[in-house]
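Narrative summary of target 7.
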Amino acid sequence: MSSFNGVDLFGAGPHSFSLNGWPRQQVRRSFAGIDGEAVVDMGRRSRVIDQVGRLEASTAGELETLIGQIETYADGQAYSLIDNHGLTHETVILEQFELDGPIRTGRNIWCSYKIRYRQLP
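Modeled conformation, tokenized:
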């Protein structure tokens, strides 16, 4: 079961995560009259974690409350993220949350969403 900051925000609907690799930054310098270049490794930089899924609730009010709970975490603070495989990712910032289409009704009220996190090294 996935969670963000220990809170189950996504358990009511299907969702998945895509983890990108850890990029490294390098500074390259060249000098006139010298073949080659100097490369300085600046180390690992933050990586992007994307999440897509569907939020589901019994009523429109419950769905609105759930959306509000998620939006409160877009505060620039780093939290712990547990993905749908049970792997824990520390120092994760929720950068962007957006609904991906209209709110729909069926057996439940639901909407698709996208989230972009940034994990600090």
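The chain has a mean pLDDT of 94.
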